[in-house]
Amino acid sequence: MSQDATIIQAHPSHEVMLEKNLPKFILPDGCSVWLKDISADCKWGVIKTVEGMGEQGERDMLEDVMEVCKELDSLVVAPVVGQLVGVWQEKRWVRGVVEKVEDDGCVWLHGVDHLCYIKIDQLSNLKHLPEVSLLVSAQCNTVRLVKSKLVRNMVDKVFRVNLRGEKNGFIRVELLDIVKEHEDINDATSKDAKVVNVEKAQALPRNVTLKVGKMMDLTVLHVESPTAVYMCPVLGELKEFQKYLYKTASELTFDPDFVPEVGSIVLARTKSDGYWYRVRVISCMEGRVSFFCPDFGFMEEVKLESVRRINSRLAETFLSKNFLACRCVLREWRDGRSSPTEVETEAIKRIVKISDKTVKVMVVEKRDGFYVVDIPGVDKMQLAKVGEMEEEVARIRKDLGRMRVHSDV
Q1: Residue 365's CB: how many other CB atoms inside 10 A?
Q2: For 81-136, what is each residue's pLDDT tens digit?
Q3: Which residues are CB-neighbours of 327 under 8 A, at least 6 positions away?
Q4: Which residues in 68-99 are b (16+ Cβ under 10 Å) and which e?
Q5: For strand 117-120 and strand 126-127, is the pairing parallel, antiparallel, or unpaired?
Q6: Cβ distance 85 to 130 under 8 Å?
């Protein structure tokens, strides 16, 4: 095998993986990054992207991959410069790359995904990495800083990236202070903002819609599959509505004579979290009610005792107000020619997390019953990569478990 080969054989049972074979680091223009380190002359910086959807899924899977390092073999042959290894750092296994190997056997490394510089005295403290770890690009990267007025005390702050091209293999970036940008915007619009807040308090919008052709900040409420991601553009309104709903429903008493009709809207308390929700009845049989919650996108079944009628006094509040979640379908699945695979479904649940934080979503079009959307970093290729990593982690753990069983015999 040639010296330029991507994987070099170094031991009969192990392959050497090199830093240069990691996927290329892609830095989107306008994205947010952490400044993790800066050179003395402030011309070079080490950055780490603030996690987007796809990145979060990759990083979660990488953590799972690194967890199995403790079960893998230690190095027995001195590593080569540029080699990727597993190293124990701050109570976890991380990816490191070899910078130097001294004559006495000491190995100097720097972190691939975490800012750290490490000296290892014994090869037994270094682990071989599973091949699946090559699927994720380096999370910490060195960039050339241009037009950025930065000082040392700005390390560990978040900046917005303004790309300035590439030179000699390094990305050139201008880092813009996000906090200052937000302060400037707030100062310029503070009067308008106060007026809008008052108006919203007096008259909440009736219809929840997404703006087609626009990039929107949405909150993920429930993830079923790539064809059913439920999102909300008005989280504050949803929270206020749920507070009122919970207080009102908690004061209602159970009516043993009430049997909800299929398709009707009622209030129901879930088993999963004990909260009350506005729901549409799917079935009611033998004292059990199945329902779908249009405000969040989930389905559940509860006993009839956990259901309350929406009487005429409550109808104006709970029946006239439109539902606050929108069903979204990822663009690559919009035509419905093929259903999402099990791997794709599990992968999107790992990547697209339910959270109070908003995510950037491009609204492509409106169709009957759903919106077609693009979530940056979430597509078939990314789901396949995360699925492949998950399957590889499961395989490694299974093999290790089998080895432990045989060793105990």
Answers
A1: 13
A2: 999 999 988 888 899 999 999 988 899 999 998 888 899 998 888 998 888 888 88
A3: 228, 229, 230, 297, 369, 370, 371
A4: bbeeeeebeeebeeebbbbbbeeeebbbbbbe
A5: unpaired
A6: no
Q: What is the mean pLDDT of residues 315-325?
A: 87
Structure tokens belonging to residue 395: 């395989």
Give the Cα separation of 305 and 375 in Å (integer). Answer: 40
At 303, phi and psi to the nearest 5?
-75, 155
Q: Please identify which residue in the block is written with the tokens 């940056």.
A: 376
Non-local CB neighbours of 220 within 8 Å, separated by 6+ positions: 229, 230, 231, 352, 353, 354, 355, 359
Distance from C-alpha of 351 to C-alpha of 53, rounded to nearest angstrom: 6
User: pLDDT over 90 for what percent of the chain?
Assistant: 36
Q: Which residues contact 22 (CB under 8 A, 6 or more apart)?
A: 84, 112, 134, 136, 137, 138
Per-residue pLDDT, averaged over 182-192, amounts to 42
Residue position matching structure tokens 């396949």: 384
Between CA 34 and CA 88 the distance in angstroms is: 23
Beta strand pairing status for 170-177 and 140-145? parallel
DSSP structure string for 342-368: HHHHHHHHHHS---SSEEEEEEEEEET
Give the integer Cα–Cα distance in Å for 266 and 277: 8
- Comparing C-alpha atoms, which of 362, 377, 372 is closest to residue 333? 372
Q: For residue 149, what are its two tokens?
A: 């007025």
- Cβ distance 128 to 389 under 8 Å? no
Helices (H) and strands (E) in the chain, counts: 6, 22
Residue 101's DSSP bridge partners are 107
Measured at the CA of 406, the angle between CA 387 and CA 74, to 5 degrees, comes to 65
For residue 397, what is the enclosing H or E element?
helix 380-408
| Among candidate residues 403, 353, 343, 408, the one with its CA nearest the CA of residue 377 | 353
